Fold this protein.
Amino acid sequence: MRLEHKPDFDKVLARFEAWWHCELLDRPLLTLGVRPPKPFPEPLLPPYPTLRDRWLDFDAILDRFEAALPHRVFFADTYPCYMPNLGPELCSTLFGAELEFGSNTSWSVPIGRTCAEIARMTPNFDNPYWTAMRRATDLSLARGKGKWITALTDLHTNGDLPASLRDPQQFALDLADDIESATAAVEHVTDFFPQIYDDLWRRLHAAGQPVTTWAPALHAGRCYVTSCDFICMISPAMFQRAILPSIVREMRFLERNFFHLDGPNALRHLDALLALPELNGLQWTYGAGNGPAHQWMDVYRKAQDAGKCLEILCANLADAEAFIGALRPEGVWLAVGGACSLDEAQAFLRKLERWTRRTK
């Protein structure tokens, strides 16, 4: 598959496929921002009467994205990608929730009075928000053909979905007061995960493109970043009884997955996740004020020892360099934050290549 602004995209896709298997094609994966040679004025979105109107104007959002493409640098395994987005709680709208929009995110208004009520809900794929997401996905696929990859939107399902329908604090109390009813609510919404996922995935598949997500891993078939941000609020025993079985069901439906483990309070669940044969990899998100990434080397080593691939969210190139020689290069993806010059990026890539040669 050739992309106008990334002619070596097939090589990137092959590197990701090796990464899923904790193997190397030629070197570890590297994604990072490179400053363009010349600054360019980024087009502004027009004024809107409400934030909701701004979020839903996907035509204007795509105009802005496409106008910036010729000025961006897609270095190493970075490639042009657009994800239609209405915020992390979109899936709650399938079960009747409304979204409220801020400048940079959205959130759902809880509607579930009890877990038993949630366990009787069924999804409506014709609600205005999901209809808008279908249209946005189709629009990006049509406009981006040969130019960029369209990503699956942000899907928070399993335990995050009843938590958004009830309110996270209330759902934590539900788990403490009546774990059977809370578990039944999680299992019930998970019954619909294949239908939710495939409703958008089939559009990507029919367009002949590989699948990616908000974390830009690539695979030709069904893949996703499995997650449950809610688990930072509960104990290991509660997690393993009420939430983990649904996460495993999602993993078994997918061909490839890696888990987004969010924040130090979620680390109590690391061992249970790494023990899963269904899990391919780990993205450990240490959170603001808890970095840089190399301070968590023991987490990455434990995941490598469990046979999992890694997306390592590095603060900058110096943080990324700390992993050279500290881990095995097989199954490593260094996702570097910030932006650097092209010369700095090329120098770091040469270090990755030397690391790979030394380990062969």
